[in-house]
Amino acid sequence: MDNKFKNDNLDFLFDCVLKLESKQECYNFFEDLCTMPELQAISQRIVVAKMITEGKVYKEIGDRTGASTATISRVKRSLQYGADGYDVLFERLGIKKEDK
């Protein structure tokens, strides 16, 4: 992560997330932490990233997720020029990158 984003508050948040031990604990924590629209936006982005990684096209991604083309483009830029955070998780989850 770029140093301009790194701070004690984010460090504490990430330390907390890393202590969660089950999906139910994640549900409980994120329900307390986030509003439903915030959770929906975050989950939408990760699904968009997964679909882009799998080689899906914008129309299919938009139709399935309801994401705007702006959101899809933003996520695609993160996949191409970001910190490889999505790639690490998808590799650990066994999600294969579609070669183009």
Walkthrough of the structure:
This protein has 100 residues and is mainly α. 71% of the residues lie in helices and 0% in strands. The chain contains six helices and no strands. The protein has helices at 8-19, 23-33, 36-53, 58-65, 69-81, 85-93. Helix 3 (36-53) packs antiparallel against helix 4 and helix 3 (36-53) packs across helix 5. The longest helix is centred in the middle third of the chain and has 18 residues, at 36-53. The protein is globular. The two termini are 27 Å apart.
Name the helix and strand elements from N-terminus to C-terminus, one letter apiece: HHHHHH
Largest sheet: none
The count of DSSP E runs of length 2 or more, i.e. the number of strands, is: 0
Helix content: over 70%
Distance between the termini: 27 Å
Shape: globular
Return Rg in Å: 15 Å
The average pLDDT score comes to 94
| Uncertain spans | none
- How much strand content do the residues show? under 5%
Query: Which structural class best describes the helix and strand composition?
Result: mainly alpha
Q: Helix count?
A: 6
Can you tag this structure with a few keywords?
mainly alpha; single chain; 71% helix; 6 helices; 100 residues
Quick description:
With 100 residues, the protein is mostly helical. The protein has 6 helices and no strands.
Fold blueprint:
Blueprint: H1 8-19, H2 23-33, H3 36-53, H4 58-65, H5 69-81, H6 85-93
Helix pairs in contact: 3-4, 3-5
